[in-house]
TrEMBL record:
UniProt key word Magnesium: no
Enzyme Commission no: 2.2.1.6
Species whose genome carries this gene: Simiduia curdlanivorans
Domain Thiamine pyrophosphate enzyme central positions: 187-321
Full protein name: Acetolactate synthase large subunit
Membrane-traversing stretches: none
UniProt entry keywords in alphabetical sequence: Thiamine pyrophosphate, Transferase
Protein transport recorded as keyword: no
Amino acid sequence: MKASDLMVKCLEEEGIEYIFGVPGEENADFMMSLEKSEQIRFILTRHEQGAAFMAEIYGRLTGNPAGCLGTLGPGATNLITGVADSNMDRAPMLVLTGQGASTRLHKESHQVMDVVQMFKPVTKWATTIWHPENIPEIVRKAVRVCRTEKPGAVHIELPEDIAKLSIDKIPLPVRKFRRPVPDDKAIDRIYDRLKQAKRPIIIAGNGCIRRRASKQLRIFCEQTGIGVVSTFMAKGCVDMNAPYCLHTIGLGAKDIPACAVDAADMVICLGYDMVEYHPKLWNNDRTKAVIHIDFLPAEIDENYHPQLEAVGDLAHALWMLNERLKKESTPLSFDLSQQKTTRENMCTELAKHKDDKTEGSIRPQKVLWDVRKVMGPHDILLSDVGAHKMWIARHYQCHEPNTCLIPNGFCSMGFALPGALAAALVHPDRNILAICGDAGFMMNVQEMETARRLNLNLTVMVWADNAYGLIAWKQDNEFGRHTDLAFGNPDWMQLASAFDWRGHLVDKAEALENTLQQCFNEPGPSLLVIPIDYRENALLTQRLGELTCSI
């Protein structure tokens, strides 16, 4: 068989279901081999960046990698933003690129660049297939590396002449093993220290949205009552209705949940990455007793210097703590009064504008109240990057893990529309909603055609303010004014019609809930545009600046 045939068979052995991408001349043999696969579905996208975001969301939702494919040169460079986003947000992904013939890579040649070196900073591993007999080993290693905690992206480059060579090999069998678990003595020390605490609190990071970890975390909180503040990416690790759910941290400004962190004498960080919310924002004076439990050792930082650490499978670590709790003759007792107050204050804050009847533009708080009301517990919301992301992070809470997907490590605009396509492929039985700013939406607007061609059921909600609203918000906060950040927009309803989407424009708060429900009931993709009232940005900054915590 050809080397490209063997590579496809190896991907099939790994259980790969989807490859998203834009083919080119240099990966034509691979595409011919892929066309014969009855297991792997190739999704032709309109831009490689969209393909990478689709593969990222598949990985985040399933825990298994999908492929994103581009050719050499510009095809590969177009992939890199989505690849970096996936890697920093801990989503498994296979990046597959073509390359010119190995006989011309040593010299100046058409579209040739060192793609592997380009991808090394934004992947866990990147390599070239120089010998076809190495394909089974490379594919097996690539999938294993990208799935291993913490997950991320892996890059494989296949030069066009290597793809054509004959090879007599078969795929390596897939063998999966249990993750390493924390040391018993480390958990004993953490448990003994927990019993000494008076006001412990949990900061849950993206590691907690793995289903087993979320289950054990909920059991731990039910037994102890300890409150959980989640990072943007950890939403849903505990149910929003649970009394120990203290909502979300992550804004640059101090918010209500931070009051509970201020009051704590112990901060237990579970599955927490510093890229999610830097510890200088919650431990600037370095007085907190920090406990680190995660798949990997703590990153070194002067504001994040744990007193105790347990490294290994997070779900198992929480199970070990739960087993110790079961053996306690007397339940642990803590002063959680500040956490109760924090939850009450935040719940009041979230409901403040639920009955708005504004016209012309709609407050972000009202939009998200209605969205949460319409969305079911297992429905999926994807947030793009912009001012709307800050409001979603603060106001949209979740019942289940992986039901609010926010890019928060690399934090790339243009993420939500292509990501929604992948979510609709993975979960066609759920309502899928992407919320974008008008800026981020237009960055990958071409994937509207892909959604229509695949006839996917999804809704994209655009918050229109005709400007880069988040940049304006940040410049206003720092300088008291902002540079020229305004732009024009298309006629949204004509845009929807041009791509054969259903289109809706809602400028009355009272009409939003019913219109969103209508979008979900319609077959195929729908575009819902809302003139957004971003005067609320400055008002939120003012309120948070006046926030005082009574401890």
